């Protein structure tokens, strides 16, 4: 720190000129906050800086006061002096409002530009640029290509990136880092300032913000320099983790809400918290949960509304305004509220269910207590043992400031493709060496090789998006450059959204994701949106529209689709494993739950009832003599055709281990292996001959160095890679937008693009998004060295079956799904099946399920050995009839005989079960074996299996 900065330590405001000091006095800013005391000196001196500080500590003013001071003291101001970049348009509006007073007082013009800015306003900004422009990463891409705007951008001296952690973890951020290198072509050097409440890897995010400089390639030691200002968040947050105790009044409330007493206890607990505070945000992890919880509060007539990204823009703004004015006391919200959208003062935050990550919890609870002297209070409400242990671990880690790393996308090739085109739009033509240097000066691309860079050029050239002058090693624009660029300003994947329209009022009420519509939506289904229940009337795929009607009957079920689950990091799951490891010997020695709970409460913020309830499965587990799965012990259990690895390694490592096991064992047996993963267990559906030993063998013998190769081979069969490949191909221009994603089947697309930069990027992204290869290599080495032990357990263990599934359906009343069951029954009864005689092979009839006799038989030979097959299963019939069968035909024939055996034993009931989507003979037998006397329960079991198939389909294909 310089002498000037030391002198200003107590009052950094003295570093400003007269104009800003006068504004501070007028505004009532007399004492600088902690981040202002630490950050203003380096910022005033022009250094790049990453400022990490809790929400409500004046981060915006920390960054902008030095910028305002520099602008106010500049002798000539012709162009744009500062860019303020935020990840959301809604934040743009808020930021303009927040900065407006300072701009007015200091005679500094501040304006906003994003996708909704009118053409008139854009032209005005080009002709008469504001001093400060608040914008988004995508809008900056477009601005860099405008002739007048490039002139205005040449005066940029400061770039402020708000919520930098959000951008650092996305392809949007990777795109922005190269965009800033393109900005340097016109603005030369400029100060870079990043702002965030939570960053787990400050030095890496600072380098992400600032980049490198170098002649040919970036020098690892030649970063552009930065200061990191970090104000500890631990002293400003307070958490309570609680599982509400069921009280007698909850039974009455359950009846009123048509739900379970446990769910009613959650509603009652949240209601009591909201009543005790003036303004509360209730964070949930999925839109589905937001809608389900919101519908309960609406039924009680409470002043609580719902806010999430699938609601129409007008609906979101309406609830934000009503919350801000105090008309509603609380908002049930998703991550849409994490990023600081202005909804006024918040004095408490409820997190419903585990927040899954430390960063997410700090970001959410940080919304409470927007005063410099106020501690942010948060209550985490849990519903299961996993939920509770995970939440107390996250709460402890949050107070200790142990935030997860940012998860930067390193070397994303579709971003490189996008930015090569952007660079050509800026300058018309460029030497390949110069383009390569520019791209690799951006931190996420510092390790990009020249061969990778040229493979991207080859793909772009083949798609006629650029022209390569090979003789002079130059790139130039082509006829397709302009159209591609403006169609791909954003790196957000182009996923279809279906508009949801209320047929009675003829208004749009929100949107549904394409994956939800494809997997779960069908006429007659009931779902919740905007806190109200709707029945689907019809789906128009051409118009991407779902027509619905409101229903008053509260018996509709919330669909069990949860979107992409927030992954629990290894560090959090490992701490849960360490808690188990600490508790196990105490329970073995006869300690009571209350005694063990007392010790845990000394370290973790929870209450007696909650911790003792969480310890209950562990107590039973130890009492029954099972080994406890911990951070360094895997317990393998098996029952029937299920093998489960209890492994406390977090979502991504468990997903990686699961894919490895399912691929290798599937290859060894020639049969599909189904898989379901959570942070503490991996469950497999296996062929009858496969036992736990096969999985232990994979873990103990797979060479860690070969892991990536095995996973890539496994990925080739998965829908997730094919879906990602289509999205990446679109960003490369390999799939023209007007052709649509479905012009080629996934397999044909895979065959066409394997070996190209498109394929390499799809694999990289899938690994980055879903898997942790490096972490799993470490786990395999520790298993093979004996650091991590493997033990087995016969049958299902209490910990094994006590996963999240124990609590995730609490929002759904046990038997309050009559309308859904009726719709499922109607659909199955009207589905078509092939009835085929396996005795004479003469009888083959296509008919609707409802027309099938109670005990089917062949009219030709009177045999009762009748297979019930899907209506498209002609290949099965052909396989049965074939005299010489190959391996695949033999499997098809075996499947037909298993089907016939079920029909012979159980008649039409078997036909109905086999008609379920993705059910098959094995699962149909399991459904029938439950001996459901109630018909609704029978159809409920079929529906549960259909949804299980939809979730795990990519592993069965």
UniProtKB/TrEMBL annotation:
Pfam families xrefs: DEAD (PF00270), DEAD_assoc (PF08494), Helicase_C (PF00271), WHD_Lhr (PF19306)
UniProt KW Hydrolase keyword: yes
GO BP terms in the entry: DNA repair
SMART domains tied to this protein: DEXDc, HELICc
Entries under CDD domains matching the protein: DEXHc_LHR-like (cd17922)
Domain Helicase ATP-binding, chain residue ranges per copy: 40-217
All residue ranges annotated as the Helicase C-terminal domain in the record: 269-424
SUPFAM superfamilies associated with the record: P-loop containing nucleoside triphosphate hydrolases (SSF52540)
Annotated GO MF terms: ATP binding; ATP hydrolysis activity; catalytic activity, acting on DNA; DNA binding; helicase activity
Family annotation (Gene3D superfamilies): P-loop containing nucleotide triphosphate hydrolases
UniProt keyword list: ATP-binding, DNA damage, DNA repair, DNA-binding, Helicase, Hydrolase, Isomerase, Nucleotide-binding
Recorded family membership: Belongs to the Lhr helicase family. Lhr-Core subfamily.
Protein's name in the database: DEAD/DEAH box helicase
